[in-house]
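Quick question, first post here. What does this chain look like in 3D?
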Amino acid sequence: MTNDKGILIRNIYYMLAYAFTDLKRKHYEDIDKENFEHIYDMFAEILYRGMSMQIKQGLCRTYIQRRENLRTLRGKLNLQGTIKNRIKRDTAIDCEYNELSVDNILNQVLKLTALILIREGSVDNKRRVALRKLMPYFSDVREITKADIHWQTLPIDRHNHSYRLLINICHFILDGMLMTTEDGKFRMATFSEEHMNAIFERFVYAFYNTDCKDVNAYHSKTIEWDINTEEERNDIFLPSMQSDIILTRGCRTLIIDTKYYGKTLVTHYDKKKIHSTNMYQIFTYVKNYDKELSGNVAGLLLYAKTNEDICADLTVTLGNNRFWVKTLDLNQDFKCITDQLKEIKDLYLK
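> Answer (accepted):
Ran it through. Tokens below.
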């Protein structure tokens, strides 16, 4: 089955498996054999399996501070509160102590996402039932709202790294929600171009980094502006340049900018054109990276093919540098996708 953009949902799973290596673990291995009617149906299956495994391993626990009146001292004595109790002729001790609890932000995010999928009509009923059976394990976890989550500061570290995949899946799901104007409830949006672009970029990098040992692959590498003299180095107002992917082999370098759009081409005076901002962007990356003007740096705009009949395809030399615009068809057998990526690498890094 395919999603609204015509991309095989199974291929999205494969791309996620490259981007998040935990999906290659045993308890996820046969998901690709499932038939999913909707992208969120696949996410529900991944989340169910991941949460089930996390429950078996033990939910993440963190220390939270509690304060209550007790008959015996626990933790630290709160003197002021205890004195107030004595004034009231209450012998209780006001105590402050830390307690390990599953009621933390990571489990709260999982619970919120699962509850939303349980209510989502596009998710298969058997998966909603399966997720509902996990909810008793989260009975001590408070319900939060989407506004309570600050994604950039979630505490993922080596002690709870098993949550990394699940939290990323939750991010894809919750970030795609739209709020209705009638009753304030949430509903699922069509999986957005922004989400697909993020998955596409991470997949291309992960494929080259893991399956192509003849090249060095770099992700989100900063490209410095080619500023000539120290006197001109007051560059605080210049925007930063962050490449999607850089591949190197020997003295050759290929800078790849991945793009996912519903329409890869724009119409200008009845003619199909590449997005000008994309071309300017890759041109700027290459020219500033090739400071020695060697011509050994090339640029590639790699578009994901959607439902358009015309595909972006261009080869051009600007100055000493070669530029390509290519389209990768994601709506085909996944081996054909990886073979095409290998051909791209071998062609441009000869």
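Residues 1-6, 178-184 have pLDDT under 50 and may be disordered.
DSSP finds nine helices and 15 strands in the chain.
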